[in-house]
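Hi there,

I know you've been waiting on this one. I reran it after we fixed the sequence typo, so this is the corrected version. Both the input and the resulting structure follow.
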Amino acid sequence: VQLQASGGGLVQAGGSLRLSCAASGGTFSTFHMGWFRQAPGKEREFVAGITRGGSSTSYADSVKGRFTISRDNAKNTMYLQMNTLKPEDTAVYYCAKANRFYDSRAETDFGSWGQGTQVTVSS
């Protein structure tokens, strides 16, 4: 499966963005999926995960209550709605397919990484 993230941009603190992850070349509805992010000088970290049917989700503590992960299997697309953005949310955001568990925090438990989309939050 090939994944392409989009929707990033520059936003002021307190603002919102919605990221999209378009999938092609695979049966999207059979994959658990996740979002990760990587800030400059830091390791890539788990942001959110969602089961193949969308019934269960998991979030990093740092984004819980502000971000919402969702998916539309009919459109082969996953989303990340980001509200109340903070400067510390600035990073390149990646989508990926879970190898097994949608809520694993380990980068190595995900694959088919998309190209990433830059999110910059100004203070």
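Quick highlight: The first strand starts at residue 2 and ends at 6.

Best,
R. S.
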